[in-house]
Specification:
This protein is an alpha/beta fold and about 220 residues long. The chain has one domain (about 5-220): TIM Barrel (Alpha-Beta Barrel), CATH 3.20.20. About 35% of the residues lie in helices and about 15% in strands. The chain is built from nine helices and eight strands. The protein has an eight-stranded parallel beta barrel, surrounded by four helices. Strand 2, helix 2 (about 45-55) and strand 3 form a beta-alpha-beta unit. Helix 1 (about 15-30) runs parallel beside helix 2. The chain is globular and about 45 Å long. The structure holds phosphoenolpyruvate. The site of phosphoenolpyruvate (PEP) has 14 residues, from strand 8 and helix 8.
């Protein structure tokens, strides 16, 4: 398992390639002393070029998809299969609340995605919105992301996140992340050795390189 703190930047459907490249260069330069793991999730069209750029500039960032298809390779126009990105990506987010809500992704679909990711050698970062969500077999990294906290500036309380993390850990030996309005001021309050290993940062504070660098620095 990768080093803690584990900080994930999810860019969602934002930025052009030139903006992604410039973000990657700045983050790589400014966070080279960070002792943990930084995982970058650019939009799918930029996965291959981000991978090449990471190699070119010798960046320590790891690459993740934001999602993968529930299908394997085949006649699925617009989709991409886990086996098509396995050479680039170490991780893939699966089960983000925006996928569940906007694309009607069921627990069945999410289990299939996890299965495809694992078979391809990609580690799922599996998002749950509460302790009630089903967690598919073989998931090792779970991100607790309550919907009310995503992009609202209204994070869950550290006490509640710790309580949820304990309950999640009763279900399996997971690495636990918290996501939802994490910023440079509050990031440290969510990290707890052996309980909460990292944070997932969405559009609010990962797109602006300065805000993201401040989070990484304060998480160390
Ligand atoms: C997210 O979308 O997963 C997220 C955590 O968003 P934000 O950091 O913007 O609240």
């Amino acid at each position: 398992m990768s080093k803690s703190p584990f900080v994930v930047a999810n860019h969602k459907a934002n930025k052009t390639w030139e903006e992604v490249r410039s973000w990657l260069v700045e983050i790589s330069n400014e966070t080279s002393a960070f002792p943990g793991t930084i995982v970058f999730c650019p939009s799918a069209p930029f996965l291959a070029s981000t991978y090449s750029e990471i190699k070119k500039i010798n960046s320590s960032l790891q690459l993740s998809a934001q999602d993968i298809s529930k299908f394997e390779q085949g006649a699925y126009t617009g989709e991409f299969a886990a086996t098509q990105i396995k050479d680039f990506c170490t991780y893939s987010i699966i089960g983000h609340s925006e996928r569940r809500a906007n694309f009607n992704e069921s627990e069945n679909t999410l289990s299939q995605k996890v299965k495809n990711a694992k078979t391809a050698g990609i580690e799922p970062i599996f998002c749950v919105q509460s302790v009630e969500n089903e967690i598919p077999t073989d998931v090792k990294i779970v991100a607790y992301e309550p919907v009310f906290a995503i992009g609202t500036g209204n994070p869950d309380t550290p006490a509640n996140v710790k309580d949820i993390a304990k309950k999640l850990k009763e279900k399996g030996e997971f690495m636990i992340l918290y996501g939802g309005s994490v910023d440079a001021q509050n990031v440290k309050s969510f990290l707890e050795p052996t309980l909460i290993d990292g944070v997932l940062i969405g559009a609010s504070n990962s797109l602006d390189p300065k805000k993201f660098i401040a989070i990484v620095q304060n998480a160390a």
